[in-house]
Design a protein that fits this description.
This is Outer membrane insertion C- signal. The chain contains 1 helix and 10 strands; from the N terminus they run H-E-E-E-E-E-E-E-E-E-E. Strands 1-2-3-4-5-6-7-10 form an 8-stranded antiparallel β-barrel. With 150 residues, the chain is mainly beta. About 3% of the residues have low confidence.
Length: 150
């Protein structure tokens, strides 16, 4: 019951942040996520070059990453963007896990259709229940964009 309350609060604040942001993307992230293979993936812009990237996965437990990407820039003169960031990583199951994740990735936003495809690397340092470092956390993101490409 306690986990359901925590999950409800996280989802509530995530939805509130999405309503206040000026661009949103929502889709799926395929890859390793605390033993789960698929996560609901969302991006919420905080400005022209800053955003929040969140994931919620379900499976043997509930995994939540909420990463701030203070770096979000175009790659040279191409249509690709790269990003880097960090934030908390939480896994609600037995055993419970709390840690810090970093993120670096690249993505492409199609102009003709509102789809964004990207790939990222997300090393995670788990602090609570056990202390571990995971460097093999890669993902493929496919998201639907709400709004125009800037």
């Amino acid at each position: 019951m306690r986990y359901l309350k925590i999950l409800s609060l996280v989802l509530f604040f995530g939805m509130a942040a999405s309503l206040e942001s000026n661009a949103q993307e929502l889709g799926l992230r395929f890859g390793n996520f605390y033993g789960n293979n698929v996560a609901v993936d969302g991006v919420f812009a905080l400005g022209e070059f800053s955003r929040v990237h969140g994931d919620v996965s379900f499976g043997r437990g509930v995994g939540i990453d909420l990463l701030w990407n203070p770096i979000y820039k175009p790659v040279s003169t191409s249509d690709f963007n790269w990003y880097a960031g960090f934030g908390p990583s939480l896994y609600i199951a037995d055993p419970f896990s709390l840690g810090v994740a970093g993120e670096i990735g690249i993505e492409y936003a199609f102009e003709e259709v509102p789809i964004v495809i990207g790939a990222d690397w997300r090393p995670t340092f788990r602090l609570i229940e056990d202390t571990d470092f995971f460097a093999d956390v890669f993902g493929l993101n496919i998201r639907w964009r709400f709004g125009e490409v800037q």
